[in-house]
Amino acid sequence: MNKANPIDLTPFIKAYDVRGLVGSQLTDGVVEALGAAFVDEVDAAGNEIIVGHDMRDSSPGFAAAFSAGARARGANVVMIGLCSTDETYFASGSMNAPAAMFTASHNPATYNGIKFSRAGAQGISFNTGLKAIRDRAQAYLASGIGPVAQPGSEREVDVLAGYASYLRELVDLSGIRPLRIVVDAGNGMGGLTVPAVLSTAAGLPELPLEIIPLYFELDGTFPNHEANPLEPANIVDLQKAVVEHGADVGLAFDGDADRCFVVDERGNPMTPSAVAAVVALREIRRVRASQPEGAIHVIHNLITSRIVEETIKNAGAIAVRTHVGHSLIKDQMAATGAIFGGEHSAHYYFRDFWGADNGMLAAMHLLAEFGSQQQPLSVLSERFSPYATSGEINSVVEDVPAATARIRAAFANEAEFDELDGLTVTGITDDDEAFWWFNVRPSNTEPLLRLNAEAGSEGQLHTIRDRVLALIRG
């Protein structure tokens, strides 16, 4: 650790997590300081914290350095080893202890990062503790980590079997029709969790599922494709395999396996919004069966398709529209008592999973719904995808306020505006087929403006999309 000229932590401690380049930004010394700072922030001296990591080459060493810093400040560290991010949420929730997960999710192998949770899998964002962790760690880098009278201990625990058993308790797949499923783990942590949860690797009973694996070997260099299924190029292999094997469904997980993407029997993607609508409906029905009266809240961020809000309301629940971002949504889950939350980015949150996100659990709900009837997945997908959507389109914009002002001026007489997260513009019309909306949000880290749009028809979508892009790009 270079105390005379310590690394500046500001550039790579983001709104929701730590995400930086290995060696130049994230070093053992930086990680050790972050471990000490985390213990101070969550007041864990004398108590347990959980540390897990993904399959990246740098992850085991960083987990060890973090443990050293945490123990120096008096925490008793529970090392859970190789795991998915939602496994750390399970450990944090079931053991009621703070947790740190080493992963850079879908980022390339040159990156690593940390996702933090308070006890009970509560999220930590920049404004709810991450800034304080950064500032404490920066001070430790400059002056060294002050020892405590009673340093902490370290022990190892395997939580995979408990995690798999708990998910099986939440969603019963034993009675569905037999399904053939291609799963692309992208050489990420899904290669560990899928055999445990959906097959028999954790010692659980066999399910009526035939799993055809793609890239289950844990390899943090991602030799086959990036572990980011949000990019269409990264699900091409899955799409081909689903068709070639005559599979009923395809699933793709990102690097830390907390997000899951779905492909139907034709190889066509099922949008995360459609998945969110299906899961929301199942959760509302389940809760309503045991709670005939009273309000049920379900969260969706403002980028999800209109079908999500419509599904929630039509099922008799209250739809809560939120900002984009997992820590913010976790806060809203807690504040509203929501039973479920869905994002356009394939993050799905469950009250029964401590309000945390879990892509595997969302996939299980989809399999349960799909497997309880005889129609192909494409029929279910089309039912919950009635509108035309653009997906996220990024544009390099040096002057975001100027671009936003151009949009406001152009749509002033034909739309309503709101600024919940960026600028959302909704067309004023009574004709459902002519409806449209779009949202533009600036990136937190790059000179980008992100556009998402939806309309009642493809023609209407293309018209709105092209108008907005012309305004954004000047």
UniProtKB/TrEMBL annotation:
Where, if anywhere, are coiled coils annotated? none
Q: Domain of life, per the record? A: Bacteria
Q: Which UniProt keywords apply?
A: Isomerase, Magnesium, Metal-binding, Phosphoprotein
Is Transport a UniProt keyword of this protein?
no
Which terms under GO biological process does the entry name? carbohydrate metabolic process
A Pfam family this protein belongs to? PGM_PMM_IV
Please report the stretch or stretches of sequence annotated as the Alpha-D-phosphohexomutase C-terminal domain.
392-469
Q: Which GO terms describe its molecular function?
A: intramolecular phosphotransferase activity; metal ion binding
The cofactors named for this UniProt entry are:
Mg(2+)
Q: Which Gene3D superfamilies match?
A: Alpha-D-Glucose-1,6-Bisphosphate, subunit A, domain 3 (3.40.120.10), Alpha-D-phosphohexomutase, C-terminal domain (3.30.310.50)
Location of the Alpha-D-phosphohexomutase alpha/beta/alpha domain = 14-135, 163-267, 278-385
Q: Where is the signal peptide?
A: none
The protein's matches in PANTHER family, at most eight in alphabetical order, are given as:
PHOSPHOMANNOMUTASE (PTHR43771:SF1)
Question: What family does the Swiss-Prot or TrEMBL record give for this protein?
Answer: Belongs to the phosphohexose mutase family.
**Protein name according to UniProt:** Phosphomannomutase
